[in-house]
Amino acid sequence: MLKVGIIGVGAMGTEHFLRLMNKITGATVTAVSDVNEERAKKVIAPYEGVRFIADPIALINDKDVDAVVIVSADSTHEEFCLEAIRLKKFIFCEKPLSASAAGARKVVDAEMAGGKRLIQLGFNRRFDPAYKELKELVVSGKLGAPLVAHCAHRNANYPEAFDDVVAVTGTAIHEIDTMSWLVGDYFTKAQVIFPKTSRHSKNKDLHDPQIVILTTSSGMVVNCEIWVNCQYAYDIRCEVLCEDGTATLPRHARVEVCTANSKSCGMTSDGLGFFAEAYNEEFQAWVDACNADTYCAAAASAWDGYCAAVTTDSCLKSQKSGGIEEVPLTDRPDFYKG
Ligand code: ISE
Questions:
Q1: Which of 39, 87, 113, 159 is 20 to 30 Å from 334 at the Cα level?
Q2: Residue from 171, 177, 226, 229 whose mutation best tests the ligand 1 pocket (most atoms within 8 A of CB)
Q3: What backbone torsions phi and psi does residue 6 show, to the nearest 5 degrees?
């Protein structure tokens, strides 16, 4: 039984805690850390034998913790990953790997120096059945080569504190990883365009929506709409234009209701609900890999986190310059192949 320590039990961390305690087999949570002690103690109260450890570094070092789940503030991921790598403990880290490409590189270098792949990064869509089906079709080549993709990432409402930086490092980063995984290529150019901003943007430093345009090394163009105060629901869309046809992400199954001259279909309010199945799959895969003392090849690695961070750094540059920025990526090292 894998003994897991979780750092951060906000909304997402609490979901991961409950998931590990109730749905996933082969693991149990032994310790939890959070900046908000009261909140953490409330979360663990119904579960016997789960300890609260205030200091996250002490939690990582705890002898009853074999593996660490990092769901704390983005700015802390790098430090906690480095400490767990030092101790050779398995890590599930929510994205981003680090707040910057330079920080992500430090983590990749530390993991390579240790000689063992320990990090699984929380890019959950790699486990989503709809995305998996879309990828399978695109890579099969049945529709010819992919040329263009149109993606939309819409959140109903973004917290007031979130700005242009988080729109890229917290939201667009999902499209960046998903699309490079889906077509098996990395990005070489990035540009961010600001259309007219919605009156629903709550932060003067948040342009909403934004259009992120990415070019892969093969010349494919990925056009992502990032709209984080769309008001109506959580909505994710993707259409891939290939030489011999198009492939569109299936919408998640919902009952369609016809009544009083109208047709409607329920939607989900947040990503935790929208991607619930993907989260379950990715955690089971992580626990199974840790218990087998290996890594899950289907999941995102620290290298994927680094590639995403290099790309988001270029998007942030473009938000300021308005121009097309180079994405300085190189080929995947052998250590991260397979
Ligand atoms: C959040 O961190 C997520 O991961 C959600 O999936 C995404 O939709 C949201 O924009 C992010 O802030």
A1: 87
A2: 171
A3: -110, 130
